[in-house]
Amino acid sequence: MATRRKSVRTQAATKNRSSNSGRRRPAAESNPEFERYCRATFDPRAAFGKPEALKGMRVLSCSQYILGPSCAAYLGELGAEVIKIEAPRRGEPMRHSTPGNEAFLYPLSRWVPGSGTGLGFFGANFNEYFISLDFHRPEARELMCRLAAKADVVVENFRPGTFDRWGIGYRQLREINPRLIYMWLGGFGGWGPGRVRASYDILGQAQGGAFSITGQPEEAGGAPSKHTIWLADYWGGMMGALQVLTALYWRDNVSGEGTFLEYSQVHGVTRQLEYSLPLYGREGVIRERWGNWDTELCVHGIIKCGRPSYPRSDNPQEEEEGYILVSAYEDVDFGMLCRAVGHAQLARLYKTHDIRVRPESQKEIYAALEAWAKDKTKEQVARILDQAGIIVQPVWNAKEVANHPHWQQRGSIFWLDDPTYGDVLSQGPAYKMSATPPRVKWAFKPVGADNEFIYSKLCGLSKAEMEKLEAEEVI
Ligand SMILES: CC(C)(COP(=O)(O)OP(=O)(O)OC[C@H]1O[C@@H](n2cnc3c(N)ncnc32)[C@H](O)[C@@H]1OP(=O)(O)O)[C@@H](O)C(=O)NCCC(=O)NCCS
User: Fold this and answer.
1) Where are the beta strands (DSSP E) in 171-214?
2) Considering the entire predicted model, what is its pTM?
3) Which CATH number fits domain 47-273+420-471: 3.30.565.10, 2.40.128.20, 1.10.540.10, 3.40.50.10540?
4) What percent of the chain has pLDDT over 90?
5) Ligand 1: residues within 6 Å at CB?
6) CA atoms of 306 and 341, how far apart (whole Å)
């Protein structure tokens, strides 16, 4: 390993990690009254009887894939009336980008009866009304202006300037509605070198700097690794929702005016790079990948347990060996861990954190832990180490999470009785609000499902006018 690389961890180790102040505190049951209070205050079964914080706020979501859609959906979970506008008949590309799009499961639209919506669409379009509109058509501009006149917010995530070119960007719509808040989420922003390239979550993570520090190091045969979930998109959507709420506060309490908001997916990834940038700026050191271990803390990583938990499962995913997170980086905890796994000599050898965190120390320590766990399941390892007072957590899959009472009781996972699609096992908002809780009312709908309702309500179109626009594929 290059000296430069070594220095990263040596530097980290010089931080004061050897104090024993981080010992585990007694479990939360020590305050049952508080638990009872939280259970009653945030009871998910009571959510639908409470008011919605953003009721009365109208959002036009001209969005595709996950970045823009999730931004609008977060507002929809809080009660905003979100109207998703898609290309007529086929809808936005996310409906076609993932498997699970059998027509009988999640029908796409009444115009394309043989197609369905892929499951990747799920979770990013909760509680929305779905209308269709072909932005290329002259009639679309007129309709979009009428909709924008009655909206608080537009969310869009097309290429820079596409909506402006179509005559329905911020510059044009603000003439119709000066109070409009226009949230544009893009790849690289509206100006600067490279701004016109297309961007996706994976590109954002690659260019923003996340992949280079994710995955196994080269010396372990590893390469930069992508995240399975679309972190840059869902995080970006959340940041967009934060921008919208801030602009709403500014409009309603300070200026009376709408605003133009921009979010860069790539720069959003860079924003999360923690100390990588100051480390480079001050020391010239490029932060490295360290796989399932941690460059700064040891032990603080994932180890392999040799025995699968469900060897006879029908699901191949469950036949593999288990993995478990072990965290014992304080000197005292590390000593306890070593004794629990029968390697007391390691505690003597690697007594202090700055010695433990070195690459060669970590290799020996983790190898010893995995050798000890070789004949055990992740549950057995968890039991033994938990009894020894060590922080552990088996690595769980979707099935294990879905069936756990903690998620179920808190409403974080629930069976949604969807009006269009029937029972759908769904994740819900991760946060709670006592007076105005977020909620999921429906998962999504087919393309153009609410054309009649929305175009008559907001644009005053008659049935005959809508039929004509439909026949001409404007809507
Ligand atoms: C996602 C992305 C790569 C798609 O790029 P693109 O389709 O080549 O270009 P635009 O975004 O300008 O979209 C224009 C196209 O949208 C399509 N479109 C989608 N909805 C439409 C509608 N309602 N009406 C008309 N056209 C529509 C058309 O095909 C149009 O192309 P055309 O004018 O050449 O016919 C690009 O929008 C982008 O980089 N967005 C920012 C980053 C992002 O959000 N990425 C996706 C999340 S990972």
Assistant:
1) 181-186
2) 0.93
3) 3.40.50.10540
4) 88
5) 64-68, 86-87, 133-136, 157-159, 162, 185-187, 198-201, 233, 265
6) 15
